[in-house]
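User: Quick sanity check before I run a bigger batch. Here is a single chain. Can you write out its predicted 3D structure?
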Amino acid sequence: MRGRKTVVFAALAFGVSFFSACVATQQDVLDLEAQTDALKQQLGGLQQTLTSLQGNQADLSEQVKNLHDDLGVYTETIKENEGQMSDLSSKIDDMRVQIANQVLSIGKALTDQQIKSIEAQKAALEKDEKSRAHSPTEIFNSADIRLGLKNYELAAQGFSEYLQKYPSGAFADAALYKLARCYYGLKEWKKAGEHFALFMTRYPKSNLIPSTRLMYARSLIHLGGKKKEAEQYLESVENDFPKTPEAHAAALELKRLIHESLKPAKKIKKPQKQAQPQ
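Assistant: Done. Predicted structure follows.
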């Protein structure tokens, strides 16, 4: 009895083990199938990716081919452009030579014209200077400048030339007055007095009359023997032109003359006789 139970238990144990083994094997098969499906899906994705890459590679190959063709065309174009640039550079060099020659020619022509123009201008200036040197204004101005520099002799020559050539000129009155001043500066009192007197006769209404009367009186004083006439002219300057600088100068001259007239005459000492040796 006991032996049968043992056999039965052993059989049950074997059955459970076999059943468990079958169940485990079936689960493994299911897992394997699941993995296989996953692998198939991955393989399908890889196949699509490979197909896409093959298509992209075909497009890339086409693009590379097109680029290669474009580079070939571009290279040819560059070669053509280089040839054209070489021709253009050669033409430019020729044009530069031509322009340089033309510029030199024009420059020479301009230089010749400029030289002629300068010579013509120089001749015109010299002619103008000569004509101006003998013009009334130039003669008067030149003499007036010399008078200002107290070069009385050359100034007198200039004013005399003006009066001889242009006795009715625009500066005739001033020339006559200044000529008298030149003679006064040269201490030629007689000529100075004559020309001052002539001025008063010709131009009695001139603005230079006060100065002319004063200078005429001074000329008379230097001549000597005409003191009374000199005093009369000095007094006329004071009376007729009281507010002028000439009136003030005339008053000073009168005072000086009066002061000199009041001085006692100096006695001339007679030389003592030397005793004759015995």
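The chain has a mean pLDDT of 81.

User: Great, the batch can go ahead then.
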